[in-house]
Amino acid sequence: MKRSIISYRSYCQLLRLWSSKSARVGSSSVCCVKDNIVTSLPACFQLTVPPGRSYCTSTENVDEEEDVIEDDIDDVGPTIPVFQHRTNLPAKFRTQHDDPTKFSLEDVGLYYKVSPEDYKKYIQSGQWPGYKKQVKTFTEATVMVRQPALEVLDIIENANYDYPPLRLFFYGKVGTGKSMSLSHVVQHCGHQGMLTIHIPDFNELIRHRTSGVRPHAPSEYTDGLIDYTDDALNWLQYFKLQNEELLKKLNIKTTKEYVWSARDSTPVGSDILDLLSFGLERKKYSSDCIGAMFREIKKAANEKRVKVLVAIDGVNGLWKNTTIKDSEKKIINAQKVSTIQHFHKLFEHNWSNGICVGTLCPSVEAINNTMYENKMDVPYTPQYLLKKEGFDYMDPFVPIIVSEYNFKEAHNCIDYYIERKWIQSPRSLTESGKKEIMMLANMNPLQLMTISGRF
Amino acid sequence: MSFAVQNYFRHLKLANCSRNEVRIISKFFLHCSARQRQNEGGEKKPTVNFVGPPDTPKSIAKQDLISRAMLTYLERKQKVDEFKQINADEFDLGRRHLANIMGIEEDEMTSEKIREALSYLMPSSLSNRKARPLLEPPEYYFPQNVGNQFDVTGRPYHFLYYTYKANYYGLMHDLALKLETLKRLNFGLSHTNQEQGRTKVGVEWISFNKFVELFPEEKVTEHDYRRFLVLVERIDDHPLGQKYQDFLDQYRITLKPKSESFKLIQPLIDEDGREYVKNSGKRKTSEATVKLFNHGHGNININGKDITYFKDIMHRQAILAPLQLCGVVDKFDIEANVMVSAGPSADAGAIRIAVAKSLACFVPDDMKEHLRIAGYLTVDPRRRERKKAGQEGARMKFPWKKR
Amino acid sequence: MAASMKNIFQPVSRLLLRKNPGLSVVCTRGSVYDQSYLETSKTLEEIKRPLAEDDIRRFRKIKAANTDDNTFADSDVVVGKLINMITKCGRKEVARDIVMKALEYVKRVQVEKYHKASDEEKTLIVLDPVKILHQAIENGKPLLITCRVTMSGQKHLVPIAPSERRQNFLSLKWLVSAGGDKPHRVRFHDKLGQEILNAFNEEGGLIQRKQEMHKICEAHKAYAHLK
Fold first, then answer.
1. Nearest chain C alpha carbon to B261
2. Could you tell me the CATH number of the domain that includes residue C129?
3. Mean pLDDT of the B215-241 span
4. Does C112 touch chain A (CB under 8 A)?
5. Residues A265, A157 within the same domain
6. How many other C-beta atoms can be found within 10 angstroms of the C-beta atom of residue C4?
7. What are C179-193's pLDDT values in tens digits?
């Protein structure tokens, strides 16, 4: 075309132009745009479109009379080809409301928007690093509603809270959306008033750090264990972010006196928030603070004052080796780290009115493991990841599989990327082009994101 | 004629005869005197090729006139004739034995029946047909003689005999003369008479192998062949070259379009009633067999795994490339089995060629051309280049040091 | 061609000027393919265009395509050239990764700008990274380059106009070397993406290099008659 595409007012206008041209010409053919030359491909490259699909990817219904299209485009040499015959229906990939507590099975496969405060609280940490970049480029954070998450939420609603806590674990291949589903569950429960104890990413507690050995110290309370000082402090900040308002309403008081040292102690009957703030100030005692807090929370839950949700992303890391060495040069297991032991004790059977959710993560298994170069090669079944010790401990649990996208979800995903201008090439805006991207990525959500960056 | 001969004939008063007559008479005399000597049983004298005064006796027996070249030729020919006779006898013997064994009469034993009998009695699994047991008439093994190339006096018939490639150089001279005539005709004419170059596509000069067959018993090299091509193309290019087109047509071949030479395979039917085509492909040392199912949904199965058998996106695109070119990515199913693997790229190349070959059986004609032009239907002949002695690798040399 | 071969092919030199050179002219040293094989077409347009009656591709055999050649929507000739220039020691996957990440970086920056811009500005922003790459290389092509000439024992730099092929090559090469410049802590693919965007806006390392070359040519203007 003699004019470049940039001179048009909007992308949707272009499409409307082309569709009006096609109505005049009476033919619909697929085009391939290259620089300023436009050629039309022969009929064998056409494909039929199901009638409900269209290519205007704005969610507003705009009338055709509103646009004033200049008519001097007629002097372009060859006829401008048209993608396909356009209907006036917008592409549907968003839910009608953004409240995470009110989704049903009809909303499966659609995106809902997350407000910036919720994003920081529940969803930001723990995802794969590309998601953060995506939120920055698209200037909005969205999460897809998926069927495994809705199943878990259903179980949480109908569970019997008189019994010890149920255990529900997500498992699946790499990149299928386990962490996302978990954060959706956490957000839902947070909105409903449950206390959320959430480790967003277990990788960080175990992995090898090139910047130096993880700051640790021998434990104050028990002999033979070590503390993670910095990590406990960071986690307490995260916990505060998530649950501060709730804790202020609840007024849980301590039932025991905690003596930290000769000078510091918290007396009986003080608020839990005091424990929290003490842990935030004094790095030395922060992991013991965590233990103390959990003890109080468990008691309060037993007395039916609080409902608790425990969510750990990467449960199979509870039995892995860390990279820290003893004074005798032996590697320390995660069972010997007191910060991690506190979370481990939450899975015991001595309290009620709570639920434990988690994901079984193959990438946690692949850390410091010479057998697997790539995390894609690791088998993803629960029994393999938990190994004998873990499986015996966790035994009565409900595994929920998170599989790859089906056709509808993948289609919506690609439509969303088109609307956000992530997919640029004109050939992939057609049905056949979308199918190609889906086949190349094998319907895997992670790979869909990386591959569609090339198109 | 020489001075001596004229002197001799002067007393015969033949001075007024023409040259030819004198020649004939002198020959007659020589012949008679030779005859006389033979009858007398005269001594042999050394051969001299010119005729001297009548006193000097000349022996002009047939043997003396023959040159050394002819002598060797005759000796060789005798040996060859003997050899041929022996072989012909052996062939006949063998043929009769075979007829006896197989129970066929001698007269009905043709060369086809001989071959059948041998492949039945002495089966062999060698891949080269010429290495298997053969019984053929001796013309099959030994080249036939072109015949004498000398006349009685030892002079060769062809004026270019001593170049060892008489027919080839004869052809070249012929062509050169033709070119010169064209140039002479064109001299003085204006350049506007020239036609455009007649570049016909689909018509080629004969190949090197066929060219060599035109000149049996002559060692024509590739260099000679190239010089021939230069000359012939020059005549063709000349504005007045129309004159010799018939002559040049002997050396031309019309090519068939490559699209006609494709082997179509009929699709088979599975146990479940689905149509499929089976094909194999190779690349480097990888081998793969592929079944392409019609009316599919885009399912891919490689050695039991999904398309995640390939981790790199490029290899996944390579497998689907022939399907994408025809726009039918989600209309076929692929079931591939890689038997020998030489790495992911080689596997991808092997599967791609098999998919393209199978796809060409389902697809209309112009799509086949597209597949061929894109290069998906040719086998990749490239292999790893060997390392050479005195070098670091195939091309890399050791560092050059001045001292 | 070796010097010895020159004598053989002297009568043949006029045939080199033809469009369809005969078999006698083309010499292939070290190639596995015969002389008669033709190159494949790489882009979808060339393949789908119907063949003319006298097109030579009807009658000749055609070489096999590389594993890298396909007609998907993300295959581009210029991008392929850039990938080839970045490969070292035959590790092409690494180079491909780098280039794709660089183009992704370009896309991210532009898309973010697009979403934050007002409606009027939206039409002016180019979003396709391949188009930006094409334009950046156009901007980086030098119009004059220098060439060494020895006259009477002295070596002079003479400005000449390069062919389009040479311009293309130099632009790409300077882009790659600008991507490896300081600061060294930044990843190569990020720096490359930044350089592409800068060249699109007529600033940055690539344009600087081109202008330096132009300055040298200006300085040596006096020797232009030597070529």
1. C59
2. 1.10.455.10
3. 88
4. yes
5. yes
6. 7
7. 988 888 999 999 999
